[in-house]
Amino acid sequence: MEVRLTHAPVQAPQLSVIGTRPIRPDGVDKVTGRARYGNDVQVAGTIHGKFLRSPHAHARILSIDTSKAAALPGVRAIVTGADMPKISGRLADQQEGAIHNLAFLSRNCMAQEKALFRGHAVAAVAADSPCIAEEATRLIEVEYEVLPPVMDGLSAMAPGAPVVIEDLKPNSNPFFRAGGFRDESEGPYHSNIANSFVMEIGDIANGFEGADIILEHDYHTGEAHQGYIEPQSATAWWSPDGLLTIWCSTQGQFAIRDMTAGMLAIPPGQVKVIPTEIGGGFGAKTFPVVEPVAALLSKKAGRPVKITLSRTDVFEAVGPTSATFVHLKMGITREGRITAADARLVYEAGAFPGSPVSSGAQCMFAPYDIPNARVEGYDVLVNKPKTAAYRAPGAPAAAFAVETMIDEFCEQLGMDPIEFRLLNVSREG
To answer: What pLDDT does 10 receive?
Structure first.
């Protein structure tokens, strides 16, 4: 059969990028070796910093003696938690909508009253070479009162569990909030639950009554590190005129500037952060880890100070994603329609509040049209490094539970998994 065109064929528009193979803006510098990463920064007169880290997951710091380290030739400066500026961590003093509490971030960079995880920094040394700085850390004497640790979210929620932060002020907010410290008049808080909330729609009791098949399971995911190739590295120069310049590998130089300034109790206008090329981050290089400490060492020594973490430092002290526990119950009809869903999410925050449990709660049922749903979320402290973002923070663990259960429903119904999902897909409005 002859086919005749009744209109002119559509001509592809001439586009400058789509349909071509543009050169990556950072590609040439990287393949030729001209790209400058955090550890490549060289400032005249730079000395090198190293951390001393706690060997205990939970311990009260009774005393720190730095005299032997200070006497080592080549040592230029030593800082401990006592050198970190005292800034308010009270919940009432936090800015409206703040997602970071600077007092928590400060204690995460350098332990103050207690070491809250194995690898928590308790002191830092700046010296003429990395080897001298490393040797000096071994001369610092720390007296600890070792405390029982709590190592998983469910154990941390149990009555009588060891308390990570005694003066914690809990939140009850379904949005990402950092929380804070309690007022002295409120007394201690005997719990590790930093935030708890409930999000619900419809009537889940009626929804389950209308279900023909009900499944109820527990799902666990472990913490996972982002695995970026380049460890954190920062060079800080606190000049005699009071201006602080920081070169660092970061995903957000303005956030690092503002948070570092706040932790050091100086105006942001006195801090300039120059980002270098970044050898991976995936969410983990969004808040200060070494920058404030390098700055304090620089101020004490009167020299630029570079701190580059080792891979051991990264794994021991820089946050992975949260380990999670999800209890999930869902009901469906024989035709494959979801009638109700009920979930309880427990996300480990590490030693300081701020797990992405709220994101998990918001995302887990979002792809589906579920008339009756309820999510209960808990942000729980444990004696591990403070967690950090990792590619859609909070969502994968919650989605893993829901999608695994949906596949089990499909198996029982003998229904195509794609067909089931299209039948229940979220609708506009």
So the answer is: 59
CATH assignment of 232-310?
3.30.365.10
The residue to which tokens 């971030």 are assigned: 105
DSSP 335: T
Do domains 47-148 and 232-310 share one topology? The answer is: no
Count of other CB atoms within 10 angstroms of residue 197: 19
Question: 189, exposed or middle or buried, with CB in 10 Å at 0-12, 13-18, 19+?
Answer: middle
Cβ atoms of 340 and 373 closer than 8 Å: yes
The pLDDT value recorded for residue 157 is 98
Residue pair 319/390 in contact (Cβ under 8 Å)? The answer is: no
Answer whether 120's CB lies under 8 Å from 351's CB: yes
Cα–Cα distance measured from residue 361 to residue 84, given in angstroms and rounded to the nearest whole number = 36
Could you give the angle at the alpha carbon of 163 between the alpha carbons of 174 and 224, nearest 5°? 60
In whole angstroms, give the CA distance from residue 268 to residue 323. 34
Structure tokens, 17: 């990028």
Taking only the tens place, the pLDDT of each residue in 395-418 is 999 999 999 999 999 999 999 999
Q: Are 54 and 119 in contact (CB under 8 A)?
A: yes
Q: What is the DSSP letter of 245?
A: E
Question: Max alpha carbon distance in the chain (Å)?
Answer: 96
Q: Strands, DSSP E only, in 228-356?
A: 233-238, 244-248, 271-275, 305-308, 324-332, 338-350
Fold of 180-225+320-423: Aldehyde Oxidoreductase; domain 4 (3.30.365)
CA distance 248 to 235: 6
Q: How far apart are CA 279 and CA 421, in angstroms?
A: 38
Per-domain boundaries in the chain: 47-148, 180-225+320-423, 232-310
Contact at 8 Å (CB) between 98 and 89?
no
Q: Mean pLDDT score of the chain, rounded to an integer?
A: 94
Contacts of 382 by beta carbon, 8 Å cutoff, 6+ apart: 150, 151, 152, 153, 156, 164, 192, 348, 349, 350, 351
Given the structure tokens 């950072």, which residue do they identify?
26
Q: What counts of helices (H) and strands (E) characterise the chain? A: 12, 17
User: What's the pTM value of the predicted model, to 2 decimals?
Assistant: 0.92
Instruction: Indicate whether 173 pLDDT > 90.
Output: no
Q: What CATH code is assigned to 47-148?
A: 3.90.1170.50
Residues 156, 381: contact at Cβ < 8 Å? yes
